[in-house]
Amino acid sequence: MKKILCCGLILLFTILLMPTAILATEDKEDFTTINITTNTTDYILTTKNDITEVSNTTIVSNSATSSITRVDTIGLRLYLQTINRTTGIWNNTGLSREFIDYNSSSIDKATLFSVSKGYQYRIKTVHFVKEGGTYNSETTYSSIIDLR
What we know:
This protein is of the alpha+beta class. The protein has two domains: 1-38; 44-146, Sandwich (Immunoglobulin-like). It contains one helix and six strands; from the N terminus they run H-E-E-E-E-E-E. The chain has one helix spanning 2-37; strands at residues 44-55, 58-83, 90-114, 120-131, 134-141, 145-146. Strands 1, 2, 3, 4, 5 and 6 form a six-stranded antiparallel β-sheet that branches. It is elongated, with a radius of gyration of 26 Å. The relative contact order is 0.21. Keywords: Signal. This is DUF5626 domain-containing protein. It comes from Paraliobacillus quinghaiensis. Residues 1-24 form the signal peptide.
């Protein structure tokens, strides 16, 4: 009778614990997959995001990204922004530029933007690198140009 009870308890615990063990294994696999696609800055070494007033209607952005090694793709996404004076929130103006180099370790671009007098401007830059299945990005903001 003790053997039957003991075997029954072992069988019961095995049945109850098996789905938990399978679930834990599945969760671990999903977690690993998520980590592979998570953005990091493993490859980005340096970033630059400067803005200069050229005239009352033109500003120039000097942006750069460098990587620790030659990568498949390295690039910059620039967004010209103005501040909403009521809310204090920076908004994209709709003017943007994207630059991409392939099989390189750096990218450095000077970009002219036509602007209107009467506003404050800054450049939001997304610096990015793609190497194999890894995507790295870092967002920076320039100083502010006041054309009011």
